[in-house]
């Protein structure tokens, strides 16, 4: 039952991603509607799978790589849907939904069996810490794709070369603003994520901060986005430079999330 | 059974000819009544716009239809049709229906994809219906044509992208700033082109206008028109720190805005984007200014290029509409056979 439901999520995201990509080439608005339908359908299903897992295991589905991947994809779709309802630029989906599909697809290849929660994670802090971190990752992911879209559109406007996506891509001003908002929200959430993690660490390990690789790298990520906000406020770094910084920030996010888990063993290695 | 179109449009007839044949709104009812009275014409519609005059007629008698339409035009306009024959085109039956569909979906328009023709076709049909000049065949065909025109606009991007220089400038401004309201325009050179372009941008919401001109009184004059502010010519660099869109059309032998000057101004602007529309010849803005981040400089050739790219895109979309039309024609043909009954089948080869 659970496996079939999760497969349904994966297929819905695949159809959504394909429809969005074809839509960007063929420009038929019907495709964008199909894509949105499957995104919402997939998201509802996805939420149900997370709840089922929570009910069955008795703890929030945030305890291993499979669960965190699934949560990551879910959080991205959540933020994407918020953006979509607020701004109605279907083209964002052309970039985000294929990524969501790959994240969900990768999760589906991992071990999804429910195992008892290891003692170190048995705390209400698990939910608070992980959800804030992953919502911040999702905001940064959206900022990353808006950064890429910005650079594509900026290039077309600058070089006066009107390409295929020119019509569909939003204006530079709007993309820059959304990019900024996403970074700002992501930064607030990441700060909260690091703070809650620190409090939890004090309670669980007796240490606020122990320079474990995950901690170090999330601090580096935090610094990158702090630099983004600082440069934006004080040096007027907007547009292209902001877009590039948000791309660098996202690479740091990916390393914090995956690189550290695979390459640098530490206290957070179960994720 | 015979559907016939005799028409004159921007491709076949110069404006002088079209003027003599056009049916202004005030005499359309009268013309339709006259058309209806003709015993050789069963149903009729007159489509008269500034680019085309077309008479659509359903014949009672195949052989007399040409004469009937010609006679109607001669009577109404008091002309000799032979003087106009060279400027006309004719379509029959399925070709006529195809033409009607191409017209309503704006494929036959002077500006491909323009959005007025659909409304004009609608109006022509409604006028004819009000007079009682159309019955079930033309009602069916024109309703199909109107539906197809709507589909063409929603299912393809035939109406997208600016296809004139001035709209291309507005389109680029909107791709940079999105919302043009509360954006400041600076006009350098109070000439006619500057004024026209500023008008276009103001139509999209841009508010504040600054005008700089060598003759200060002319700047004041134009600024007054826009409820704006005149700027002394030597002080236009200061205005560049405030303005978001700059329209420059000064005839000067040297460039007015240089790269070094703009680099400094961008620091004062905190990198807020600025869009230059350089209409001067020789150019007023040094092309290298475009290399600075958050500055976009477009001259006439650039805007022309944008326009052409959009036009090319519309041509691609037009091909999709041609396919839509062919599909619809097959359905229409079947439906028409039902409407006409067996007795008229032979005419539909």
Structural class of chain A: mainly alpha
Stated plainly, the CATH topology of the largest domain in chain B is called Beta Polymerase, domain 2
Structurally, how many domains make up the residues of chain B? 2
| Strand segment tally of chain B | 10
Main sheet properties of chain A = none
Proportion of residues in extended strands of chain B: 15-25%
- Kindly report the average pLDDT value of chain B: 90
Overall pLDDT metric of chain A: 91
User: Spans of chain B with pLDDT under 50 lasting ≥5 residues?
Assistant: 345-349
> Into which percentage range does the β-strand content of chain A fall?
under 5%
CATH class of the largest domain in chain B: Alpha Beta
Rounded to the nearest angstrom, the distance between the terminal CA atoms of chain A is 25 Å
Q: Would you spell out the secondary-structure blueprint of this structure?
A:
The complex is a heterodimer of chains A (271) and B (349).
Chain A: H1 2-26, H2 29-57, H3 65-87, H4 91-109, H5 125-159, H6 172-205, H7 213-235, H8 240-263
Chain B: E1 3-9, H1 15-21, H2 25-37, E2 41-48, E3 52-59, H3 65-77, E4 89-92, H4 93-104, H5 117-131, H6 136-155, H7 165-177, E5 185-188, H8 192-203, E6 209-213, H9 216-225, E7 229-232, H10 236-239, E8 245-248, H11 259-268, E9 274-278, E10 295-299, H12 300-340
Parallel strand pairs in B: 5-6, 5-8, 6-7, 8-9, 9-10
Antiparallel strand pairs in B: 1-3, 1-4, 2-3
Helix pairs in contact in B: 4-6, 4-12, 5-6, 6-12, 7-12
Can you describe what's shown?
The complex is a heterodimer of chains A (271) and B (349). Helix content of chain A is 78%, strand content 0%. With 271 residues, chain A is mainly α. Chain A folds into 2 domains: 1-117; 121-271, no CATH class. In chain A, helix 1 packs antiparallel against helix 2, helix 5 (125-159) runs antiparallel to helix 6 (172-205) and helix 6 packs antiparallel against helix 7. Chain B is built from 12 helices and 10 strands. In chain B, helix 4 (93-104) packs across helix 12 (300-340). The longest helix of chain B is centred in the C-terminal third of the chain and has 41 residues, at 300-340. Chain B starts with a strand and ends in a 9-residue tail after the last helix. Chain A binds chain B through residues 27-30, 153, 157-158, 160, 162, 166-167, 170-174, 236-241, and chain B through 154-157, 160-161, 172, 174-179, 269-273, 290, 293-294, 296, 298, 302, 305-306, 309-310, 313.
């Amino acid at each position: 039952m659970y496996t079939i439901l999760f497969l349904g999520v994966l297929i819905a995201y695949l159809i959504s991603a394909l429809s969005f990509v074809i839509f960007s080439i063929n420009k038929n608005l019907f495709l964008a509607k199909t894509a949105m339908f499957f995104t919402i359908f997939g998201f509802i299903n996805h939420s149900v799978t997370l709840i089922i897992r929570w009910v069955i295991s008795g703890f929030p589905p945030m305890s291993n790589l499979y669960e965190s991947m699934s949560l990551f994809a879910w959080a991205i779709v959540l933020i994407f849907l918020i953006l979509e309802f607020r701004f109605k630029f279907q083209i964002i989906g052309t970039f985000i939904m294929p990524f969501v599909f790959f994240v969900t697809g990768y999760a589906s290849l991992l071990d999804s069996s429910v195992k008892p929660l290891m003692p170190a994670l048995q705390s209400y802090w698990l939910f608070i810490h992980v959800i804030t971190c992953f919502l911040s990752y999702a905001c940064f992911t959206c900022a990353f794709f808006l950064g890429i879209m910005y650079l594509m559109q900026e290039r077309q406007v600058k070089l006066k070369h009107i390409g295929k996506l020119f019509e569909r891509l939003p204006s530079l001003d709007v993309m820059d603003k959304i990019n900024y908002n996403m970074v700002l929200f992501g930064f607030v959430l990441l700060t909260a994520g690091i703070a809650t993690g620190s409090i939890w660490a004090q309670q669980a390990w007796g240490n606020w901060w122990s320079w474990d690789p995950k901690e170090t790298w999330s601090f580096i990520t935090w610094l990158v986005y702090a630099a983004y906000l600082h440069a934006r406020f004080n040096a007027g770094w907007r547009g292209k430079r902001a877009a590039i910084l948000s791309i660098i920030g996202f690479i740091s996010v990916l390393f914090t999330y995956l690189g550290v888990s695979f390459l640098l063993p530490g206290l957070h290695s179960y994720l | 059974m015979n559907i016939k179109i005799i028409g004159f449009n921007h491709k076949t007839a110069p404006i002088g000819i079209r003027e003599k044949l056009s049916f202004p709104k005030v005499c359309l009812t009268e013309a339709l009544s006259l058309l209806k009275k003709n015993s050789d014409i069963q149903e009729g519609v007159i489509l008269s716009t500034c680019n085309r005059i077309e008479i659509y007629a359903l014949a009672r008698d195949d052989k007399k239809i040409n004469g009937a339409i010609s006679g109607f035009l001669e009577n109404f306009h008091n002309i000799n049709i032979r003087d106009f024959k060279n400027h006309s085109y004719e379509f029959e039956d399925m070709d006529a229906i195809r033409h009607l569909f191409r017209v309503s979906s704006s494929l036959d328009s002077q500006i491909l994809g323009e959005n007025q023709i659909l409304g004009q076709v609608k109006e022509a049909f409604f006028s004819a219906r009000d007079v009682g000049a159309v019955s079930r065949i033309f009602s069916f065909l024109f309703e199909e044509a109107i539906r197809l025109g709507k589909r063409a606009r929603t299912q393809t991007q035939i109406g997208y992208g600016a296809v004139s220089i001035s709209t291309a400038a507005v389109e680029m401004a909107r791709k940079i700033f999105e919302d043009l309201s509360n954006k400041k325009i600076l006009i350098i050179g109070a000439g006619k082109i500057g004024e026209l372009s500023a008008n276009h941008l103001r139509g999209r919401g841009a508010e504040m206008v600054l005008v700089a001109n060598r003759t200060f009184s002319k700047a004041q004059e134009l600024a007054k028109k826009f409820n704006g502010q005149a700027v002394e010519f030597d002080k236009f660099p200061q205005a560049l720190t405030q303005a978001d869109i700059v329209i420059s059309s000064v005839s000067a032998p040297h460039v007015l805005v240089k790269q070094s000057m703009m680099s400094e101004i961008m620091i004062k602007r905190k990198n807020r984007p600025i869009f230059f529309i350089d209409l001067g010849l020789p150019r007023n803005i040094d092309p290298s200014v475009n290399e600075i981040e958050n500055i976009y400089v477009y001259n006439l050739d650039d805007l022309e290029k944008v326009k052409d790219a959009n036009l090319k895109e519309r041509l691609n979309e037009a091909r999709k509409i041609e396919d839509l039309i062919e599909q619809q024609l097959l359905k229409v043909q079947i439906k028409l056979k039902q409407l006409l009954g067996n007795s008229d089948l032979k005419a539909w080869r």
